[in-house]
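FW: tagging you since you asked about this chain on Friday. Here's the raw sequence from the shared folder, copied in full. Didn't touch anything.
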Amino acid sequence: MKKVLIIQRLLPHYRIDFFNKLRTTLAANGVELSLVYGKDIQSQKNDEADLEWATYIDTQEIKLGNTELYWQPSLPYLPGKDLVIVEQANKNLINYLLLVRRLFSGHKIAYWGHGLNRQANPNDFRNTFKKAFLTRCDWWFAYTSQVKEFLAENGFPRDKITTVQNAIDTTELTNQYNSLTASDAEELKNELGIQSDNIGLYVGGIYKEKRINFLIKAADLIRAQVKDFHLIVVGSGVEASVVKEAASTREWLHYVGPKFGLEKVKYFKIARLFLMPGLLGLAVLDSFAQQTPTVTTNFPFHSPEVEYLENGVNGVMTEDTVERYAYEVSQLMQDEARREQLVEGCKVAAKKYTLTHMVHNYAEGILKCLHLSPVVQLPEINR
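HL: got it, structure written out here
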């Protein structure tokens, strides 16, 4: 049986289903999957998890000036592995050891990631350094099709790149959303003291790149145009105090902290729009699965999954100004026919970007890298 090891610095909740299903799919095809992961003890997102069959190891943080580096003592788990898959991250020291090991022993390694840091200038030192290592692996698991194109343009063989189509379990989210009734929605609105349907929702980490101040300024303008507008903020992070302070002076702004599972889905059930003017990534899939169109901006530092949003089809991308963003949200709040068209687009996208597709893509890439033919046939899917 071939053996594969994936090393993750962090294990967020949304990855649990993926790793469980990938492990099952690979086992059916004669491949044993192991997972080693760490945690960020300083994280305020409250979104990290544990996995019974995986191995937790303490991650050591090393300060080098203003830079944080991470060492995961995962060497005991390397022997006997036919392939080791790591996140493509400059700060993960284990990656450099694996590159040296590959150079002298021929052991296969693969990268999984974005290709470059999309929250920084493409030509800054960090991305220049990252590009220097782009081709020094045996296989690439690219988050999206645009990441694959970037890798190919920078010299990595196209036939050794798997487009993962990064996703979460949208099927389960859709089922949970559809299981909620109108009375469930009214009950939550009553708890929050909301007597309006014009509700905007933010769900995610609360930190600088998410541009919470931008969101609050826009919300003030929206409220001036849509008199019964309410904004609900779900999540936690280093800038949570900004939301709490704003909510203390705005009776229409509701901060409810982090929510998971069905509790989080309930907030999508009462919202008309998903508001994310800053960094947008996997959260766009939440909006698809829960039929709540995203309104974002052409912010230059989105994550790769922003390519799933089709402007005017399953969401809206505005100019990157508070005024324009507020105007577009206000217009959508008052144009139900247009909003419903976007909802239909969300339903279509939710069926395209699924965890099942991601698992099959990833498993197929591993089998190709190991020169194995599927024992259990993987279905053809849209890429």
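FW: The first helix runs from residue 16 to 28.
HL: agreed, and The mean pLDDT is 92.
FW: great, closing this out.
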